[in-house]
Design a protein that fits this description.
This protein is 35% helix and 24% strand. By secondary structure, the protein is an alpha/beta fold. Bound molecules: adenosine-5'-diphosphate.
């Protein structure tokens, strides 16, 4: 399983009012790797995921998939705000992940139940989103993404709206489920620690328009725990990422260097 972006650019709007969001982005991802794109807000990370998912077309460049017919690989996208349907319960929301596949209702519900158990929510099958905490809703979103068994899992700041402790627990849960159901993941975040903890490889982006500035391999074996963040390798990676991001953040705040 692999795909590659070749010189992808994206501008929103037209002519003199166009906002360039991405410029000349090229990279490849393959196998069951966990790839993270780190960058400041507004550098085009979400735009990039939407292009990979086929939700928007690039203004220039192309995305190539390794499918024999050249078809787009099947993707699931997890957003920061989970995107659950409020009138459906947990079980139905997760089963919805299979809606566009040729899976009968009984089987969809059975498979959904399996992933709901995996994220520890079996007691909440009949609850509706408003009855759940934000962390629990995000777990439902993750279960829904995995149940669809996508060829590429796209994660857009999935833990961005969680408090620090809940985030740590959910990051570990995501790693555990991914370890069991390995697949190609493209994850975007502005959280450096999260990128180091989760990824095999990190691409660092700068913004306006978004470009890839650096590629970093994360050397830690799996399964991993939080201890990897205390190592010298992690400190080095943190510094390399922050060297790029600090400049960006200062520019966006107009802070003198
Ligand atoms: P990120 O996910 O890194 O925060 P986005 O991909 O959401 O970045 O946005 C990149 C840039 O494109 C930003 O300047 C944003 O304002 C702009 N942008 C995003 N979506 C649209 C849109 N639908 N119309 C116009 N501009 C947009």
């Amino acid at each position: 399983m692999s795909f590659a972006l070749h010189e992808v650019a994206k501008a929103y709007g037209h002519d003199r009012r166009a906002t360039p969001a991405l410029a000349g982005v090229s990279f490849a991802a393959r196998g069951a790797e966990f790839l993270t794109i780190v960058g400041p807000s507004g550098c085009g990370k979400t735009t990039l995921l939407k292009i990979i998912a086929g939700l928007i077309a690039p203004s220039a460049g192309r995305v190539a998939f390794d499918d024999p017919a050249g078809a787009r690989l099947r993707t699931s996208l997890v957003f920061q705000d989970h995107g659950l349907l409020p009138w459906y319960d947990v079980h139905e929301n997760v089963a919805l992940g299979l809606r566009f596949q040729d899976v009968g209702r009984a089987e969809a519900r059975e498979r959904a139940r399996h992933f709901i158990v995996q994220v520890g929510l079996e007691r909440f099958l009949r609850h509706h989103p408003h009855e759940l905490s934000i962390g629990m809703r995000q777990r439902v979103g993750i279960a829904r993404a995995f149940v669809a068994d996508p060829q590429i899992l796209l994660l857009d700041e999935p833990f961005g709206s969680l408090d620090a402790q809940t985030k740590l627990v959910l990051q570990q849960e995501l790693l555990r489920i991914w370890q069991e159901h390995r697949k190609l993941v493209v994850h975007v975040t502005h959280d450096i620690e999260e990128a180091i903890l989760l990824s095999d490889r990190i691409l660092v982006m700068s913004g306006r328009p978004g470009r890839i500035r650096e590629e970093i391999r994360v050397p830690f074996a799996r399964p991993r725990d939080l201890g990897v963040l205390d190592t010298r390798d992690a400190a080095d990676i943190r510094r390399r990422i922050w060297d790029i991001l600090e400049e960006e953040v200062r520019q966006s705040l107009w802070v003198p260097q």
